[in-house]
């Protein structure tokens, strides 16, 4: 948050992502895990249930449209990882996203810096901005795979979240 000088960081979990198969944790469970993590997060980090309360697939452009209506003068930033930035052309009405928010791409371990790829997206006067953060060598996919193989995720997620996952047997195969 400090590098972007944000007043607030809103985490917006999707009820149903149009780009992924059905999740192995439902929206209620993902909300509970986020709430468990937020209990220990700084007060400027909040959950926005906007997409959880919306029926059907969640599209980022629709969320940004609603946020712009709610906060017409706010400067909005969409922070995504390099993996999602590379997939941006597959998003619903993806070119419109830059009309509502500055797209910020955070470094991700295992992804080659593809600045030229982002520039080639041709978003006009709203270029993609890179956030220089230390890359984390972990992903949600890695965590789910560890859980499916009955491996510990304790060093990778906050303890209350790990406890919730274990209690509800999430992401585990039979």
Explain this structure.
With 174 residues, this protein is an alpha/beta fold. The chain has a single domain (2-31, 42-136), classed as Rossmann fold (3-Layer(aba) Sandwich). Helix content is 34%, strand content 11%. It is built from 7 helices and 5 strands; from the N terminus they run βαβαβααβαβαα. The strands form 2 sheets. Strands 3-4-5 form a 3-stranded parallel beta sheet. The longest helix has 12 residues, at 27-38. It is globular, with a radius of gyration of 17 Å. The model has no long low-confidence stretch (mean pLDDT 83).
Low-confidence regions: none
What is the mean pLDDT?
83
Helix and strand element order: EHEHEHHEHEHH
Q: Based on DSSP secondary structure assignment, what is the total number of beta strands?
A: 5
At CATH level 2, the architecture is: 3-Layer(aba) Sandwich
Rg, rounded, reads 17 Å
Could you give the order of strands across the largest sheet? 3-4-5
Biggest pleated-sheet summary = 3 strands, parallel
Layout of secondary structure:
Elements: E1 9-11, H1 27-38, E2 45-47, H2 60-70, E3 77-81, H3 82-87, H4 94-100, E4 102-106, H5 115-119, E5 129-131, H6 140-148, H7 159-168
Parallel strand pairs: 1-2, 3-4, 4-5
Short account of what is shown:
The chain is of the alpha/beta class and 174 residues long. 34% of the residues lie in helices and 11% in strands. Helix 1 (27-38) runs antiparallel to helix 7 (159-168) and helix 2 packs parallel to helix 4.
């Amino acid at each position: 948050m400090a590098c972007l000088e944000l007043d607030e960081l809103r985490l917006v979990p999707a009820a149903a992502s149009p780009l992924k198969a059905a999740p192995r944790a439902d929206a209620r469970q993902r909300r509970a895990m986020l709430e468990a993590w937020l209990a220990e997060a700084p007060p400027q980090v909040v959950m926005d249930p906007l997409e959880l309360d919306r029926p059907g697939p969640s599209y980022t452009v629709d969320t940004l449209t609603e946020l712009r209506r709610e906060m017409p003068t706010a400067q909005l930033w969409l922070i995504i990882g390099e993996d999602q930035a590379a997939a941006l052309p597959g998003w619903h009405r993806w070119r419109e996203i830059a009309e509502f928010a500055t797209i910020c791409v955070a470094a991700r371990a295992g992804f080659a810096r593809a600045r030229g790829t982002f520039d080639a997206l041709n978003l006009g006067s709203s270029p993609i901005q890179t956030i220089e953060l230390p890359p984390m060598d972990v992903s949600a996919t890695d965590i789910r795979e560890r859980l499916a193989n009955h491996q510990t995720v304790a060093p990778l997620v906050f303890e209350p979240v790990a406890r919730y996952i274990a209690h509800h047997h999430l992401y585990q195969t039979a």
